[in-house]
Structures are given as structure tokens and as C-alpha cells.
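Instructor's aside before we start: the two examples that follow are unrelated to each other. I chose them only because their records fit on one page, so don't look for a connection. First example below.
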Amino acid sequence: MKDQDELIQWKSLFQREQQGKTPDDMAYSPIASINMPPYIPGSRENETAFGTRVSTVEHCFWVDNSAVEWFTGMADQLAGYDKITFQGNLNTDNANRLRNALQSRVDPKNFTLKIKEPLPDILDLGNPGVLSDIRSLFRQGIPPPGGVVFQPGHDFIRNIGLIRGIQKHLYPSEGENSSVLHSGIYIPFHEQENKSREGNLIPLTNQILSMMISGLHRFIWDVRSANAWQKANLIYFLNIPEILAREGNVFQEKDPIRGSGFFEELSDQIARTLQA
């Protein structure tokens, strides 16, 4: 009871000193700004949440028929992103519903709907046997017909080393224009379960940053098994790479780790292992 009385007294004193504002009013909470689409109008004239800088981040959603109702209701929120793609096995009616809902709000140049193209193969960089998987997928140095997307592991350094090692192994002469960099970053929502929910965004940010530093900018959000919280807070996830690109300037340098002795040696070692 004494602690509670002291807390009440402190809050009362705080409110007097801050001219009526409570501690809750003054508390720093980033949730509201994180939940804003990138071009939502700001509080001042001509102000936007992230400015007008183009992020070059691409968002691709793997969907099924159950996701159509959800995304038709999100059309206004998705309108500010640079490039949006939907890919999946949709029936004709649902494909038309999704197309009509988004084309009325999203710039047609920024919106693509793919309903018949095969989904790419998934390469899990967190798998201990990933080097064997790479050899299996890239037979004779040729990617599979549907392409490959990379699922980041939890090891920041290993993610970067693997992407760069694959790049050196398959496309040694292409450098920063490597075809590997046109692949996608695969984020499966069914593996993003976490009791603390928002707390899961921190390790996910670490994974995403490692892939963006490696030069990848296309995100594959597999939302086919998204739960209720993920659906209600999809913008949280989309804005992780948006903030890193727009405010962190991750893509300002085409190859920020070029010349790093540690990463060059690590990726050389991975490339030699793949060639063996």
C-alpha cells in the first residue's frame, strides 16, 4: 500500500510540474509511428511519415483464397508502398476481387497479380545442411525454373556470408549486379509465432537487416497461415525494411561490406566449399 501511495503522489507531482500532462502522456511509445504506412499524412502540412524518398523495397505476398477478404480491406494502407505483388493459387472470382480492390487505390505501375506462376524454391539459410541444399537447387550452377528465395537464419554474420558466398560461386563476374540479388527474402508468418508478439519484431529486424546489407530488397511475405494478430498488424512487418531503407539508408551503398576482410574470407570459404 505504501508503494502505491507513493506512486500516486509522484504522479500528482509530475502532473503539476508538467502543466497537466500525465506520465502516460509523456511516455515514449513508437508503436503508433511504426504502424503508419510510409506516405500517411503527417501532423504538419506537406509532412509524411518517412518523407518522399523511394525505398526500392518490393513486397510480394504469397496468398490463398482465404486471404482475399483481408487484403481487400487493406487496400488504402497498401497504397503508399513502392511496389506490391500478390502471388498464389486464387480462383478467378477472388483474383478479380483482389485486383479491383487494389487497382482502385494502388498505382497500377506499382501493383502486380500473379495467379498462375509457380512459386520459387525456398532455401533456408538457418538449416545446418544449407550448403548441400545449395548444391541440390543450383545443379550445374543453374537456378531452378521458378527461381529461389532465401529464408534468413538467426545468425546475422552467417546470413551475409552465405549470400555473398553463393554470389561468388554462381556469378563470380557479375559483382554487385549478381542475379542472386534479384532473389527474394522469404518470411513465413507461420514461423513468426511469439508469446510477446511485438517482441518478435526485434529478432526479425536482425534477420532482415542481414539480408538487406547483402543487397536483397525483394520481400516474400508468406501470409497463407497468418494468425489474427499478424493480420491486424501486418504494417508492423512491412515497415521493418521500409524504415531500414528510408531512415537507415541501408541501400545508399551498393555493397557496404565490400573490402571487409572478415566477410570476404568467410564468403570465399563458402564459395570454395560449394565448388568442391
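Example two begins here.
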Amino acid sequence: MKKHTVRRAGEIIISFSLALVIFAGLSVGSVNAADDDVQIIETDYSELWSGNITAQAGKTVKWYVNVPEDANLRGCKLTIKIPGLGWGTDTANRDEGHLKLEEGLNFIYEFTPENAEDILFTCWMGSGCHHNYIHVKDEKSVYGVLICGNCKSAPPALHSVGCTLMGGCQASGYGLLVPRSDKSYRFYKFDEEGDKKAFDTLTALRENGISNYLSVKVTGSFSETADSYSFTNQNGEEVNGQYDYDGIVTDISEIEYDGTHEGFEVNAVPVDSENILIEAVPDQQYTGEEIKPEIVITDGDYSLIPRFDYTLEYSDNTEPGTASVKIKGTGAFYSGETEISFEIVSPAQEEPSSEENGDDPQISQTAEADNKESTAPETKELASSGQQPEQKESDKEVTKENEASRSEQQKDEKDTKQASAEASSKPSESGVSQSAANETVSAEKTTVSTGAAYQTQQSSAAGNEAVPKTGDSNILIVLASAIISAFVLFVLYRGRKKRQ
């Protein structure tokens, strides 16, 4: 029991000691950590005059230098002044204010840099002896589209991974397209290290099946310095003065893919909002091919740019009827989708011309003119006298012939009807259907009108060849009756003989 209690107490003491060690380690390590408002910079004495010391613009800096116990503390390199912040001058002046370092953690200075800059510090003898810089970076995270300098003018949301990995695009260097308030894009070029990070990011995106719309968040130091640059393309040719940039990004710590595009489209306006005006499309004439009329879209005084601000999808746009157009917002400034429609109409039916009817328009017009000239004077004279125009002798003869022809036609029609009635009242002796007989009679009386005269044609001769004549049919019937009668008599005879 006593041993168990002692062992238990020992475990508690060891656990408590380990906790103290961990807490102490965390407390010492936190000197290099920066909270939201203050950044702590701790520089080791061995790197004071040669190391890379950086700070973030816009945050208060507390700078410390750690001097170990075994350091050789002698000479001017143990002194510090900061001419870049107005603490001393860049001259050899022992009487100026400066700080002498001691063993342990030395607090040097507290300041708040506003912009990206390099702050000079020296020993008491100035930069001619020992000096270095505190590099202030304006590091921030910015959303944009990852793109190559070769294609920085392309629609950002449609640019592909495959294009950026081509030789010419790699040679032109990479950068970030950042949206501006005037609905344009600002191109920030990456430094050499940033190009390597961008290439690795693009390669990973392609392996993961990402094909386009490379919206990313880039964390680094952004400079607003605009300039132009040249590069050697994939053919080894020097390209000068063809590519420019609006700023540069250095010290890139991260390129993070934003698959939702939310950071890039944070200020995007839906294309179906009330401020977006889409002009109605007039009716389109049918052509037999796909019809894709221009779509005009405005947002106040700004005219949306196809492929940069929106894309179009047409459907049912070939045949006559109602066609549809789906409008999708794209890029940093417009999002969502809406749909409009327009009509495809067939061309108007045109009346056939006299040439299509086989008439000679020149002859027809001449004949019509001659007819008007010959009848116009007489018509005018008769109209003025109130008399009816007299018929010419030739006209009277034609009229008589027409009347005679009509009488003959009426008589033929009457005979045809009478023959049809008689045929329907009697059974057919020849075995031919009544309808065939009627067709034969009517075919014999077909008349064709040619002006005032009528001609009668026999049009059923060919069709009547397939119909047997009445005489032939009667002979066949008599022969069949005789054969049947003989067969019946034969059967009766054989039956009576068997009974006997």
C-alpha cells in the first residue's frame, strides 16, 4: 500500500514537471509569433549583419536581438543604430545615440512601417563598417486568376490549364489577374520563385482534373510598380517590349486554388438582376442553318463584353419557331444565369411570276395593251351615249356555236344518266360488275373544252381490253352448265344401277 502511494506521487510529479517544460518552451517560442496587431521579430546575433530580416507593413514591430553567452563581445559590431528610422545618422560618430548589446535577449526598437521598404541599420561607425536592412514587405492575400503573361488579355474565367503549361506560356512567366472597380483587370507579375510555385500549382491542378477557371488566392508582397519585361520564348528567341505588368508579387508564400471562385467573384452581379438590361432580339429569317443573333447587354453605362462578362448557349435556333438563348455571367463581375427567346420565321410566300407559269411576259403585256387600245375608244363612246355595245358578227357566230355545243353536251349527259339507270335496274348477264359498266359508259362520253368548240374522245379503250366481251362470257357459262349437268346425270345413273 505504501509503495503504491509513493509510485503514484512520483507519476504526478513527473507529469507536472513535463507540463512546466512544455509551457516554458511555448513561452520562449512565442517571441517570434505575431498577433493581429503586433509582430515580434527575434534575430540571432550570428545573423545580425548578414541574415534576411523581414517585417510586414501595417503592423507594429518589436525587434529583439538574442546574444548567446559564448559570444565574443568586443568591437563596434556590438553596437546598433537605425539611420533608416531616424535613430542616428549613417556616419562614424561615437557621440550619436546607439545601443550596446549584452548577453541575453536585447530589445532594440519598436516601430510601425506603413509601406514596403528597406530600413537601414548600422554599427556606430555607419554603413561603411557594419550594416544590414530590415526588409518590410506589404504581404497580403489577394484573389485573382492565375494566368501567363502571354495570355493576360484573354477572358480570365475561360483560360485553360493546358494553355498555361505550354512552352510559350511558361517562358512568358506567370502572374495574377486581379479585378478592378472599373470592371477591368490588373496584372501582377510573379518573380522567379513565384513562377516556380505557379508551375507546380498548375501541374497539380491538371493532375486533379481542373481544366480552366484558375481562380486562386496568392499570399505575398504586392508592389504597385508598373513596368515591361522581355523573355526568351520556347524557340530560344528574345521577346522584348511586348509584355507589360501593372505590379509585381514577390516573396510568395502560398498559391491556393479557390474552386468555388467566391473570393474572385465576391462583387459579382447576377445577370438576371433589375439593373441588367438585355435588349429584345427581333424576328430572324429562316436560313436552314443555325441562327445566332448578337445579344446586347448593358449595366447602366457599361456594355458587358462577351466571354469576359458572359457566355451564350443557343438552342432550337435552326428551324422556324421559338429559339432560346441562355445567358451565363462569368468572370469577376457577373454571375448567375437567365434566358431569353426570339422567333425564327419562314420567308413570305411569293406569287409565281408569268415566267414560272410558262408565259412570255413580253407577249402577254403586248396582247393586253393591244386589247385595251382596240376596246377602249368604243367603250368610252358607248358609255357617253348610254348604249350597250353591239356584238360583232364574228362574236355572234362564236356565241351560236357555244350554245350548240352546250346543247349537245347536255344531251350526252342525259343519255349517260339514262343508260346508267337501265344498267342498274337489270342484273348483269355477263358477270361484269355494274361499276365497271358505268365507268365504260362514262369514259365514252368524256369531253374536253377548247375555247368555243368541244371534242369527244374515247379514253377507255385501253382499260376495256381487260374486260371480257358479253358473247365470250355467255359461251363459257353454257359450257360450264353442260358439264355440270352431265356430271349430275352420271352420278344418278350409277346410283340406280347399284340398287338394281
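The chain is about 30% helix and 30% strand.
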